[in-house]
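Quick one, probably user error.
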């Protein structure tokens, strides 16, 4: 299995994703004016600055985003898209910019369980919603077979569109853990690959599904065995207690 691409191993890529999530700022340390070079310490100062120096301009807004399980407050211009905020404010570059028109799927993220094009959604509209990016998926062990399968079957060439495909595939498997090839192709129909790797995607996902199903079966079997063992131990302990009680009454 190919586990290294362009000098980056899967393990190091996972570590980079974890580091990117850890580095996401919970709130901005300073406030910046997007028109001039003014820098302040809080949002109230920023509002005052705009009112005094840029009265005809739109004042930035505060938005709290729940990204990869982390709540982050950002101060942004209302017209910024979610993709722009993920990249420029939170340091998450997995959602790519290709068409910037909502036509290619390279910027796909998951919002409240559904795949969404982050270049077509205003970040201000996402407050209170749960957002998952490719970085968040990469650090969850459950999804490693999916990433491994993509590498094994060369379901990428330049790799630029790959995060969007993986995010869409994850959203599909969340709702349908055992999809058919047709269902996979339909789910991925909004993602474009200029390199033409389309046949490889369904092949990779189908293999990942089998591996993940086997892993789940093993976990269930181990859990069952553990429950059975505990039940036997509890039963034996109970029998010993009853025997001791009976002996005590007899004496």
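Nope, works fine. Designed sequence:
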């Amino acid at each position: 299995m190919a586990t290294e691409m362009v000098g980056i191993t899967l393990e190091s890529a996972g570590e980079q994703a974890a580091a990117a999530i850890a580095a996401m700022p919970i709130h901005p340390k300073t406030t910046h004016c997007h028109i001039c070079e003014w820098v302040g310490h809080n949002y109230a100062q920023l509002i005052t600055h705009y009112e005094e120096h840029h009265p005809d301009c739109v004042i930035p807004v505060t938005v709290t985003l729940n990204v990869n399980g982390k709540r982050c407050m950002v101060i942004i211009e209302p017209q910024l898209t979610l993709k722009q905020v993920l990249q420029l404010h939170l340091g998450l570059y997995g959602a790519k910019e290709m068409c910037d028109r909502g036509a290619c799927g390279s910027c796909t993220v998951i919002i409240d369980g559904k795949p969404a094009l982050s270049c077509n959604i205003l970040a201000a509209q996402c407050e209170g919603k749960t957002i998952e990016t490719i970085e968040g998926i990469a650090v969850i062990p459950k999804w490693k077979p999916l990433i491994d399968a993509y590498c094994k079957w060369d379901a990428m060439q330049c790799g630029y569109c790959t995060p969007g495909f993986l995010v869409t595939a994850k959203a599909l498997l969340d709702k349908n853990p055992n999809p058919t090839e047709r269902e996979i192709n339909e789910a991925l129909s909004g993602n474009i690959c200029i390199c033409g790797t389309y046949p490889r995607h369904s092949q990779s996902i189908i293999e990942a599904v089998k591996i993940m199903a086997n892993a789940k079966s093993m976990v269930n079997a181990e859990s069952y065995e553990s429950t059975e063992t505990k039940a036997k131990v509890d039963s034996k302990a109970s029998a010993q207690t009853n025997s001791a009680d009976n002996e005590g009454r007899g004496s």
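The two ends are 70 Å apart (CA to CA).
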